[in-house]
């Protein structure tokens, strides 16, 4: 039997850009993807799925984020983001997310372990 301490960490990645122009350029998304992938590799983790959205961080209704959160909750994986502002700039939204029951402590450069 394998203990949880020996288990490979599992992540659900969420990437977001604010505008269609940023999304088309791929520059913001490419940097986020690299940061998340480097973070996962450094921890020997597996990225189970990646969700990408082109939407303002001011909007709380984001279908890809909702799906990422559901998958993280169902699998016990950690939601991982490249930077906190990619998730939201709204403190109330972040507090609601924190209370949602999804493990979301990890982001490249700022792991909560």
From TrEMBL:
Identification of the protein by name: Resolvase, N terminal domain
UniProt cross-references to InterPro entries, sorted A to Z: Resolv_N (IPR006119), Resolvase-like_N_sf (IPR036162), SSR_resolvase (IPR050639)
MF term (GO), any: DNA binding
Provenance organism: Loktanella fryxellensis
Transmembrane residue ranges: none
Domain of life per record: Bacteria
UniProt KW keywords: DNA recombination, DNA-binding
Ranges of residues in domain Resolvase/invertase-type recombinase catalytic: 10-113
Entry annotated with the keyword DNA-binding: yes
PROSITE patterns per UniProt: RECOMBINASES_3
């Amino acid at each position: 039997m394998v203990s949880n301490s020996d288990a490979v960490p599992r992540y659900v990645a969420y990437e977001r850009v604010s505008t269609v122009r940023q999304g088309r350029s791929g520059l913001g998304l490419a940097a986020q993807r690299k940061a998340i992938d480097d973070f996962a590799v450094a921890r020997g983790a597996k990225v189970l799925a990646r969700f990408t959205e082109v939407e303002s961080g001011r909007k709380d209704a984001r279908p890809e984020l909702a799906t990422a959160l559901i998958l993280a909750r169902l699998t016990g994986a950690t939601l991982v983001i490249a930077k906190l502002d990619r998730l939201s700039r709204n403190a109330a939204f972040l507090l609601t997310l924190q209370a949602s029951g999804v493990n979301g402590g990890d982001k490249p450069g700022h792991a909560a372990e």
